[in-house]
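Researcher: Let's run the pair from yesterday's discussion. Sequence first, then tokens, for each.
Model: Starting with the first of the pair.
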Amino acid sequence: MPVGHYENFPVASLLLPRRLRSPVEIIYRFARSADDIADEGADTDDVRLRRLSDYQRSLERIAAGEIPAEPLFADVARIVREHALPLPLFGDLISAFAQDVAKKRYADFPELLDYCRRSANPVGRLLLALFKRTSESDLAASDAVCSALQLINFWQDVELDFAKGRIYLPQDEMARHAVSERHIAEQRCDSAWRALMAFQVDRSRAMILSGQPLARSLPGRIGLEIRATIQGGLRILEKIEQANYDVFRRRPVLRAFDWPLLLFRAA
């Protein structure tokens, strides 16, 4: 699942078994803190990349069997050791956040999916490692859900990302739908924009639904947690459609009244 803007999705919630809440919280704390380095504050790009390089060096110390002094990385070292988590997945996250600092446009969908592979999929794979569900089919389903959630986050936050100089809509698909960057700059929601966004919504929905069998197969509260997360993503897509794809004036977010509906659908 996407590591930025967690407000839309449950994180280390009470639905999870107690023994897994702490490692899940540490995974998200690592991801969110690194994501914030790439996104938040007024640091220059050079400073952001240097700080992310410090994260990577701490991971390398963990790989060498050391326990870093920083509390966050000491926690990461502990859960990697206790739960046999694949440490390279943490490095993939750092790679994606560093890319966010330097790369602002995506030529096509495969290029965007490669970003999702490193920015979102590692979190799902780490969770599956905690759950001891790491078959190829489980990992593929998790990747579909996580990439879809990342894409949904992009469609939700087109305007916010543009303010940071980024456009995640694939450039070739924008051109094919006769949408330019001026649409975003001018918040122009015309028929061309709606067609482009309808295409993105439909593809994201198909992707997340393709991973739904994994959520149904996970037992008890773990399965309910993942199903609720999927329903959160689907609900955002519904809200984009209900806004007639005008994500500029009606940014789709989950409100308190959405959660009973999501839990009902998940159950």
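Model: Moving on to the second of the pair.
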Amino acid sequence: MFPSSLPEPRTPDPMAAPPLRWGILGTGWIAARFAASLLAHTRQQVYAVGSRSLATAESFVGALEGPVGLEREPAAYGSYAALVADPAVDVVYVATPHHLHHEHARLALEAGKPVVVEKPMGLDADQCRELAGLAADRGLFLMEALWTLFLPKFDVVRQLLESGALGTVRTVLADLGEHFEPDHRILRADLSGGPMYDLGTYPVALATWVLGEPAEVAAVGTVAPADLSPSRVDAQTAIVLRTASGGVAALHTSLLGTSPTAAAIVGSQATLTFDGPFYQPGGFTLATHDGRVLRYDEPRIGHAGLHWEAAEAARRISAGDTESPLRPLADTIATMRVMDLVAARLAR
């Protein structure tokens, strides 16, 4: 039944999450934004930073600032092994390039640390299953940092889907395309470049979250021109998923240009249309087929919203949980199974 008003997000106050001492493994673009979001919006401590060189780690530490979490200068380590060996680190955030996520998450788990791994958790479902098994064997927390599903906006969507406000949902539409300069790592085949791992994860994860795992996967794509990517990584991909119950998803991802980055969930009674970029903090419209409309808005703070996933991890780790129900490991693996099938369809 269509609601008279939208539910409120049930997402707890990030400031209320028990503060943990975070070790940040990696010093790139996403690591910097994750640290800044923690320091601005939570009581989490950026306790240590690890890089391949001490100078890089020290430079990262020197650039940190924030009104909440920076109670001491974080330790800087010139190797990843040194960071995970620090007995004072409560949890490791793996933020190295995605082709190294599996290796570095394994390193941290073998050191006995709870781990939050940037998406994708691995380069295929087998790598994700291996990490999940290792975490389970050691009783350690493990979570993929697919930050979208931890946002307050997506808790409202979650409640709408659970209540049946959209009716029977059988369609998901999602698109994510960005422009990249020729020197970006996404254009290098030796770094597992192409749009799927960086961008395509979001549309695929949305579709599998809403519809479940598909029974059929189809995909077509093109490679990047040689002047943009001499190693000729995939440039754009169109994907169609079909579930056994008749659900269909039409998805698109590209590194050739900035697309609307829009998404919609279509039900028999109502359609939920996300503002672009759909995977970031922002708004959406819920509209019935006879013209009734409800509107949700939240501040469009971009990657400053990364703290929501950190707060969730801190709560779960402090409670002794080994994963988060907001992004269970089974869902991470299901997304990667679809990505594997897409890769197989595009194999040349």
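Researcher: Give me one sentence on the second I can quote.
Model: The first helix runs from residue 29 to 41.
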